[in-house]
Amino acid sequence: MNVEYINPFVETINNILATMAQLSCEYSKPYVKDGDVALGVVTGVIPMEGETVKGSLAISFSEGAIVKISSNMLGEEVLGFDETCRDLTGELTNMLSGGARKLLWEKGFDFEMATPELLTGEDLIAHSVAGPVMVIPFDTKAGPFFIEVVFNSRLDRANTYS
Q1: pTM above 0.70?
Q2: Which residues of 36-64 are buried (b: 16+ CB within 10 A; e: fewer)?
Q3: What are phi and psi of 35, to 5 degrees?
Q4: Domains with residue ranges and CATH for the chain
Q5: Runs of H (alpha helix) within 38-82
Q6: pLDDT per residue of the chain (162 residues) written in tens, 0 to 9
Q7: Cα first-last separation, the chain
């Protein structure tokens, strides 16, 4: 997968968490995902489609990460994973996809996004696109979270993993 597709997601989530949740995160080396099981307790999935690019984005949070992010964003202590955390995951998915979409658009990639689907527990993630799923692992002081992206592009076929 072309690194031009991954960097906008890293940049966007760093901005979101720093400005809205006063939380820093560090990412590790992306890897190709094995299997379809969600990597966190709550996951937002959103399909993306354009003339030259079709893709899917998922963001999965560990319980510790989403509870801390929720607490910081709401300005009140959230004691454990609840409906507030689930709802906030949908909002974070929208913010992430919107921010990354803007950065990708600036690079010449244009696509539309649908409403996110929310999954809890170890549900299977059904990406709307076939192909290798790249996972970008992140770590915070409160726990890990993961961004998954898969793209199919007529412009990128030579640069995909098999």
Answers
A1: yes
A2: eebbbbbbbbbbbebeebbbbbbbbbbeb
A3: 100, 180
A4: 3-152 (3.40.1550.10)
A5: 63-74
A6: 566 777 888 899 999 999 999 999 999 999 999 999 999 999 999 888 877 778 888 999 999 999 999 999 999 999 999 999 999 999 999 898 888 888 888 888 777 777 788 899 877 888 888 889 999 999 999 999 999 988 886 544 444 433
A7: 10
